[in-house]
Design goal:
With about 200 residues, the chain is α+β, with helices and mostly antiparallel strands. The protein is built from three helices and seven strands, in the order E-H-E-E-H-H-E-E-E-E. Helices cover about 20% and strands about 25% of the residues.
Length: about 200
């Protein structure tokens, strides 16, 4: 699976950009990924329906991701809750091969991953499914991931229930990127909030 190299401006959602900037602020201190308990964006409670928290077990041959939260958007899109389940098992044999490698790349690179995929809802309306993955560690291997999931349709309204499982067509990837360039955070008050420094 191929991933593009990108800077933070690749992220479209204002709220996802805010989550990324909070991660970058912590990362910039020593160019190491932060601990999960350090990550406290403002008003994160408002976004909990769009967030999924994972624990990561690196003792196996491949990373094992366990869903630790019940993100409403993910539960609606996949048709049922996944709390307490392994990610690959929750996704099933049809979706796991196109979704799990994104998580594994984020873990291996120890950097944020961002993807956009098009999927049809049950009425045939095209929905863009935007996923931002942020890795966390206690100083060793990656121990946790946070996924921010956003959905948007050019048609306006769409049906999120069973979005990922409601038709025969698999999600069509539009973008797979690792955010590995311009990993800096601008100081608050000096420039507009939500932007990221870019050095030529």
């Amino acid at each position: 699976m191929q991933f593009e190299s990108a800077n933070p401006s690749v992220v479209k959602s204002i709220r996802q950009r805010d989550f990324l900037n909070n991660w970058l602020r912590l990362y910039a201190r020593g160019q190491v990924i932060p601990r999960i308990d350090e990550y406290q964006p403002e008003r994160i409670e408002e976004d909990l329906p769009d967030l999924v928290f994972f624990s990561v077990d690196m003792t196996a041959q491949e990373p094992r991701l366990t869903i630790q939260s019940d993100g409403t958007r993910m539960a609606n899109a996949y048709g049922h809750t996944g709390k307490g389940r392994q990610l690959d098992e929750y996704l099933g044999p049809r979706l796991a091969p196109i979704v799990v490698p994104v998580y594994h790349e984020c873990i291996a690179r120890r950097l944020p991953a961002y993807t956009i995929a098009d999927i049809d809802d049950v009425y045939g309306r095209v929905v863009a499914y935007e996923r931002l993955l942020l890795p966390f560690s206690d100083g060793g291997p990656v121990t946790h991931l946070i996924a921010s999931l956003k959905t948007i349709s050019a048609d306006g309204s769409f049906e999120i229930r069973n979005l990922m499982r409601g038709n025969d067509r698999l999600p069509e990837p539009r973008l797979r990127a690792i955010i590995d360039r311009d990993l800096f955070h601008r100081a608050p008050g000096r420039i507009p909030r939500g932007d990221v420094l870019e050095f030529g």
